[in-house]
Amino acid sequence: MENLKSFTAHFAQLNEKDFIDLEALFQLVSIKKMDHILTSGNYAKELFFLNKGTFRIYHLKEGEEFTTKFLCSPCIYAELFSIRKQTPTFFNIQSLTDCECYKANFDAVEQLMETNPNIRRLFLKLYEHIYISGKKREISFILDSQTKRYHDFIAENPQIMEQIPLQYIASFIGAKPETLSRIRRKSNKI
């Protein structure tokens, strides 16, 4: 779990015992391309550390898929709304590649946070990072054009562009696939 150790180091410094305690909560899960680790209507109870691969988060409305987020390794994700409200999740989390991730029971992680100030600090910084990312996306949908959202997405995620089907990128930036095609054609002429 070296990726977990280097990932957490961006948010908080854990000593060896802290990391061993955290690592003990996780179980390895291998996910095949296009499989789901969570589907709408189910209750979320786990936190995931994505070690290798790419996932997308989407929801369905009247049979149409709306991609809201991409998760690229390494990262940590938990469907907090479902966990906190104890309601079925609205979202689906699907692998776009063969993936290797680790899952941990969210309650067990919280128990560790209660007793370990370094782990608590780590997750407070992670939550802050996730909140800021969400706000950035929200503001982008208010202020930016689809073209700008597309260019920003490419600039922030050049390593995964080949892994993501264009219809998911179109959905993510709030465009129809044909609109994304026009944006891409204009971008290639520049």
Automatic annotation (TrEMBL):
Transmembrane segments: none
Domain Cyclic nucleotide-binding: 10-130
Lineage summary: Bacteria, Pseudomonadati, Bacteroidota, Flavobacteriia, Flavobacteriales
Organism per entry: Flavobacterium jejuense
Name listed for the protein in its UniProt record: Crp/Fnr family transcriptional regulator
Pfam families documented for this protein: cNMP_binding (PF00027)
